[in-house]
């Protein structure tokens, strides 16, 4: 049964998070950024008070790739999206369910952000974080896990934002999930990451046992083909029966270039092994072009998914019409949109009589602690077998985090973290991470950040 509540307070914080090596994706190289933290307090009908929390890295130049903006300016857009969302969520005085509250504010959030030239993908970052923290509070108030709470539809998901599917489909999806206890890790090979030598693929294979890989592309068919062939050759040399996805991060400027890459995948002998192991191609075209360009025969030969183009509740149906088969799930884009897209895929596959459509689990460097735990729990609830996880190698575990906070998370989730020298890091065993301890009361965490160690969100930048 869905719980109704009002929001009493929302506090916004951040913490600088340095990377231990540069992460090159799309047209940007990131060496560190701020992680946002949200703490909410709600009052349930009947008077009970509950609190919840979430965290998410404010990744520059992904939500908004406008070349006229600096890295810092794109992070400021995310701060503004958080500040606007906080104002809207606190202003709702009528007791509502969690999803009803989200639905009540999402339109105004988009409108206010649009007036500040903040694109829809960045605008959604604010409500996405509010919703995660509020869900954490609700689950703690009822003392149930995400898996139990969503199966009972504690958040009150319904079809008010998805006219293409009805309430019955949503309820069937939520109640039919069988959460996983382990999720295979899909290791990202960034464009600056070495393929051999220290930190190369041999080290990754021996250190993690990963079989799944996500390979970044730069939008140049010849260069991308050569790198894909080199990665396949190295993994084959290492004896890895791997599976791969490729991600262009909108870098293929036109359909002809994308067609050239696909032609190479289908004809070059050096790419035959990778083609056989390729699961899908992620967001090759710019978001504005992606939902205007039919994939045609390319969509019949390869599975494509959208990611950056997923900036509204109508994006997945439109992408499906154009030949895409999947869409990414990212907690930073919204947990409710992720779940409703899962319900869509279930319904469409039932209609087709085969598993054509799917939700893919991607990651914008979710960090150790709340971010990686909540996103992994969402993936496990969906039942998605493998997920891109970045924080385990681009950031040094609980980087820049107080000792007491590291110890609290390690004690609460010993299947997820272990002490490695002076830093607590994610445990990756046999290519997978555990979701077992995420089935705790609340949204996947039995520990909280050291709030006293965080800085208030840079509100002067977010005004």
Mind telling me the CATH class of the largest domain? Alpha Beta
C-alpha Rg (nearest Å)? 21 Å
Helix proportion: 25-40%
Distance between the termini: 38 Å
- Per the CATH scheme, the topology name of the largest domain is TIM Barrel
Low-confidence stretches: none
Mean pLDDT across all amino acids: 96
- What is the number of beta strands? 15
- What CATH architecture of the largest domain do you see? Alpha-Beta Barrel
Strand content: 15-25%
CATH superfamily of the largest domain: Enolase-like C-terminal domain
**Count of individual helical segments:** 18
Counted up, domains total 2
User: Main β-sheet, in a few words?
Assistant: 9 strands, mixed
Topology:
Blueprint (H helix, E strand, L loop, with lengths): L4 E21 L2 E17 L4 E9 L13 H21 L6 H18 L4 H4 L1 H18 L3 H6 L15 H10 L5 E8 L11 H8 L3 E5 L4 H17 L5 E5 L7 H13 L4 H6 E5 L4 H4 L7 H4 L2 E3 L8 H7 L4 E4 L5 H18 L5 E4 L8 H13 L3 E3 L2 H4 L8 H10 L4 E4 L2 E4 L5 E3 L20 E2 L2 H4 L1
Parallel strand pairs: 4-5, 4-11, 5-6, 6-7, 7-8, 8-9, 9-10
Antiparallel strand pairs: 1-2, 1-15, 2-3, 4-14, 12-13
Helix pairs in contact: 1-2, 1-4, 2-4, 6-14, 8-9
Characterize this entry briefly.
This protein is α/β, with parallel strands linked by helices and 463 residues long. The chain has 18 helices and 15 strands. It has helices at 71-91, 98-115, 120-123, 125-142, 146-151, 167-176, 201-208, 221-237, 255-267, 272-277, 287-290, 298-301, 315-321, 335-352, 370-382, 391-394, 403-412, 459-462, and strands spanning 5-25, 28-44, 49-57, 182-189, 212-216, 243-247, 278-282, 304-306, 326-329, 358-361, 386-388, 417-420, 423-426, 432-434, 455-456.
């Amino acid at each position: 049964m869905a719980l109704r509540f009002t929001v009493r307070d929302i506090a916004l914080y951040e913490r600088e998070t340095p990377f231990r090596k540069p992460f090159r994706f799309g047209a940007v190289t990131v060496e560190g950024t701020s992680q946002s933290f949200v703490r909410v307090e709600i009052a349930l009908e009947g008077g009970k008070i509950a609190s919840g929390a979430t965290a998410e890295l404010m990744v520059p130049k992904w939500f908004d790739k406008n070349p006229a903006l600096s890295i810092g300016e794109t992070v400021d857009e995310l701060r503004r999206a958080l500040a606007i969302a906080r104002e809207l969520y606190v202003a709702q005085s009528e007791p509502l369910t969690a999803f009803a509250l989200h639905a009540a504010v999402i339109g105004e959030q988009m409108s206010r952000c649009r007036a500040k030239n903040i694109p829809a993908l960045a605008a959604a970052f604010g409500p996405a974080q509010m919703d995660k923290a509020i869900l954490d509070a609700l689950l703690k108030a009822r003392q149930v896990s995400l898996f139990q709470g969503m199966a009972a539809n504690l958040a009150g998901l319904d079809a008010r934002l998805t006219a293409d599917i009805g309430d019955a489909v949503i309820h069937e999806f939520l109640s039919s999930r069988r959460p996983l206890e382990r999720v295979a890790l899909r290791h990202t090979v960034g464009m600056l990451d070495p393929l051999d030598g220290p930190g190369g693929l041999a080290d990754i294979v021996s250190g993690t046992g990963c079989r799944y890989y996500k390979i970044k592309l730069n939008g140049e068919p010849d260069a991308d083909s050569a790198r894909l062939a080199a990665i396949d050759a190295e993994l084959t040399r290492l004896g890895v029966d791997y599976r791969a996805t490729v991600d262009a991060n909108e870098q293929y400027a036109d359909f002809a270039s994308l067609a050239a890459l696909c032609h190479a995948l289908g004809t070059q002998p050096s790419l035959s092994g990778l083609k056989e192991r390729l699961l899908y191609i992620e967001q090759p075209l710019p978001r504005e072009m992606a939902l205007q360009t039919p994939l045609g025969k390319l969509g019949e030969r390869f599975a494509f998914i959208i990611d950056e183009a997923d900036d509204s509740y109508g994006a997945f149906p439109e992408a499906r019409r154009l030949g895409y088969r999947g869409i990414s799930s990212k907690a930073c884009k919204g947990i409710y949109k992720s779940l409703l897209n899962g319900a869509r895929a279930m319904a469409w596959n039932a209609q087709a009589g085969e598993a054509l459509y799917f939700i893919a689990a991607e990651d914008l460097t979710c960090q150790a602690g709340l971010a990686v735990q909540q996103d992994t729990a969402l993936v496990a609830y969906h039942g998605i077998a493998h997920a891109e996880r970045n924080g385990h190698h681009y950031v040094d575990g609980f980087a820049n985090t107080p000792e007491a906070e590291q110890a609290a998370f390690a004690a609460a989730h010993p299947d997820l973290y272990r002490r490695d020298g002076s830093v607590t890091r994610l445990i990756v065993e046999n290519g997978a991470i555990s979701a077992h301890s995420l089935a705790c009361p609340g949204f996947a965490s039995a520990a909280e950040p050291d709030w006293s160690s965080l800085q208030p969100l840079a509100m002067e930048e977010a005004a």
